[in-house]
Amino acid sequence: MRNVSNAVMGAIVVFAAYYAGAFAVTILALPIPGPLVGLCLLLGMLFTFPKLEVPTARFVTFPLKHMSLFFVPAVLGVSIYWDDIRANALAIAIAIILTTSLSLGFTAWFAQKLFCSKLNKPSSTSQSDGEFE
Q1: What DSSP string runs through the chain?
Q2: Once rounded to an integer, what is the mean pLDDT over residues 31-43?
Q3: Angstrom distances, CA of residue 98 to CA of 32, 76, 84, 108
Q4: Which distant-in-sequence residues (6+ apart) come within 8 Å of 30 by Cβ?
Q5: In 10 A of CB 107, how many CB atoms?
Q6: How many helices and strands, by DSSP H and E, does the chain display?
Q7: What is the rounded CA–CA span in Å between residue 85 and residue 44?
Q8: Band of pLDDT at residue 77, cut at 50, 70 and 90
Q9: What are the backbone dihedrals phi and psi of residue 19, each rounded to the nearest 5 degrees, phi first?
Q10: CA dihedral for 110, 112, 114, 120, sign (positive or negative)
Q11: With a threshold of 0.70, does the pTM exceed it?
Q12: Rounded to 5 degrees, what are φ and ψ at 30?
C-alpha cells in the first residue's frame, strides 16, 4: 500500500510540474516549451523538498523502463520526412554534433561543480568539540 501511495504522490508532483510549466509558458508567452519549464520546476521542487524524491522516483520508474515506446512517433516522423532529411543531412549532422557537444560539456561541468561542492562541504558530525570554544 505504501508503494501505491508513493506512486500517486509522485504522479501528482510530476503532473503538477508539467501543467504549471505549460500554464506559465501560456500566460507569460515564453518562447520555450512548457514541458521544459515544467521540468525545471520539478527540479526546483526536488531540490527544495528532498522528501519528494522517493515518490517521484517510484512514479517515473515505469515510464523510464518503457522509454522505447516514446520513440515510435519520432521513427514515424523520420520515415515520413526522409526526403527533407536527406536534402539537409549536412546541416542536421552539424546541429546534432554541436548541440550534443555543448550539452555534454555543460553536463560534465555542472556535475563536477556539484560533486566537488558536496565533497568539500564540512559534515556536522566531523566537527571537534574544541571548535566551539
Answers
A1: -HHHHHHHHHHHHHHHHHHHHHHHHHHHT-SS-HHHHHHHHHHHHHHH-GGGHHHHHHHHHHHHHTGGGGGHHHHHHHHHTHHHHHHTHHHHHHHHHHHHHHHHHHHHHHHHHHHHHHHHSPPGGG--GGGG-
A2: 94
A3: 20, 25, 20, 15
A4: 24, 37
A5: 10
A6: 6, 0
A7: 37
A8: confident
A9: -70, -30
A10: negative
A11: no
A12: -80, 145
Q: Are 58 and 6 in contact (CB under 8 A)?
A: yes
Classify residue 31 by its DSSP letter: S
Residue 122 has pLDDT above 60, yes or no: yes
Compute the average pLDDT of residues 105-133. 72
Q: 566537488: which residue's cell?
A: 116
- Matching residue, cell 516549451: 33
Tell me what percent of the residues of the chain surpass a pLDDT of 90: 59
Statement: residue 132 has pLDDT above 90? no
Distance CA 114, CA 108 (A): 10
